Amino acid sequence: MEKQKNFLQHAIKDNSILPIEDEMLAYVCSRISDKTSKQIVSKQKLVSEVMSDTYLLLIDRRPFYLKINLSPEVPNFWKELCYNNFDFHPKIIDYSFDDEFKYFCYETPVGSRLSEISNYPIHPSFNLTGKFSDLIKKIHSVRIKNEDETLSILNSFLPLESYYIYDKYPVVEVFSTLKALFKQLYKSDPDHLGLCHFDMTLDNLIYSKQRIKIINFEYAANANTYLDLLLAKENLNISDSSFNTFMGYHKIYKSDFKPYLEASEIFNFAYLNSKIISEYMTFGVNDPIKLKALINKSAFYYEKLQSKLFVSKTIDKKIRHLYHLWK
Fold first, then answer.
1. What is residue 104's three-state secondary structure?
2. Cα angle 235, 241, 247; round to 5
3. What confidence category does residue 113 fall into, taking pLDDT thresholds of 50, 70 and 90?
4. In this predicted model, what pLDDT tens digit does every residue of 23-59 receive, in sequence order?
5. How far, CA to CA in Å, does 152 sit from each of 24, 77, 219, 221?
6. What CA–CA distance (Å, rounded) separates 320 from 125?
7. Would you place residue 4 in the very low, low, confident or very high pLDDT band (cuts 50, 70, 90)?
8. Which contacts (CB < 8 Å, 24+ apart) does range 128-133 have?
9. Residue 208 — φ and ψ, nearest 5°?
10. Which of 98, 49, 53, 94 is nearest to 72 (CA)?
11. CA atoms within 13 A on the CB side of 168
């Protein structure tokens, strides 16, 4: 583990609330109280992420999540999520996108995250395949716009800023080639567009009252729904047989996916590296188990794509060295 820490060194951050942060929270909480006529009993910081911080509020003895963003830009899909208050997301009780603070507050569903149920929640033994299918149908049926934002999302996975950590994560060297290769392979089809979440992980799905709800829409966009499904298969550890059963609920055939299989490998690889960089830049190696799982999945896709990326021997050696350290 010491070698890994030397390779991906980063300051570890805790979730203590700083005095200036406490002032901001007091202001936001007072606005929520005024709008909802409910008393906020306590507040606790849960997660710090690149785009936002998440807090747990106790309001009239009930738990709520509060997400606050301090950057000039509103995180992806926050406005659409709040303006529509979709029923596949927990109920949003307040939000604001003014110049000072951007936030929204939503109910904490009574239930369990899928990560608390199993690492393989779509296995037939849990009888959740139909409920997951119902969720996907609702999400993908939403059309906020006609534009295909798939390429924009891929580019957001691989930002130019990531090159600053090349010495610690040399995989960023192939990002420009990945973008070009995806653009060459991906063929947009208006019949296959819809609201895509692009981050259906075990922690973002909540089983509550015989339904599955989904949170954290920062990657969401109007994009190719097949790519969203194939990424969900990866994130939720869905076996081929379980995925075939799931496709039966959707009345989708393997031939429907075939045009997107190569593009999906690039898309999934880009997504995984985005998660690795985000995790590292925010938490360093504070959660080595999570980081190891992501890096090992990245290594799997690198092996599949390496011959198409025209990686020099020097870069390839550095990338493989990184993957070897995290086996």
1. strand
2. 75
3. very high
4. 889 999 999 999 999 899 999 998 877 678 899 999 9
5. 32, 13, 10, 9
6. 38
7. very low
8. 128/207, 128/212, 129/242, 129/245, 129/246, 129/249, 130/249, 131/207, 131/210, 131/211, 131/212, 132/205, 132/212, 132/246, 133/246, 133/249, 133/250
9. -140, 125
10. 98
11. 18
Exposure letters 251-266 (e unless 16+ CB within 10 A, then b): ebeeeebeebebbbbb
Q: Which long-range contacts (CB under 8 A, 24 or more apart) does 36-39 make?
A: 36/93, 36/94
Task: Give the span between the Cα atoms of 63 and 85, in whole angstroms.
Answer: 18
Q: Can you count the helices (H) and strands (E) in the chain? A: 13, 10
- 294-306 pLDDT per residue, tens: 999 999 999 999 9
Strand partners, 212: 207
Q: What is residue 92's predicted lDDT score, i.e. its pLDDT? A: 97
What is the pLDDT at residue 61?
87
Q: Which one, of 59, 18, 322, 292, lies nearest residue 172 by Cα?
A: 322
**Burial (CB count within 10 angstroms: exposed 0-12, middle 13-18, buried 19+), residue 63:** middle
Quote the pTM value: 0.90
List the structure tokens of 129: 């395949």
How is the chain split among helix, strand and coil, in percent rounded to 5? 50, 15, 30
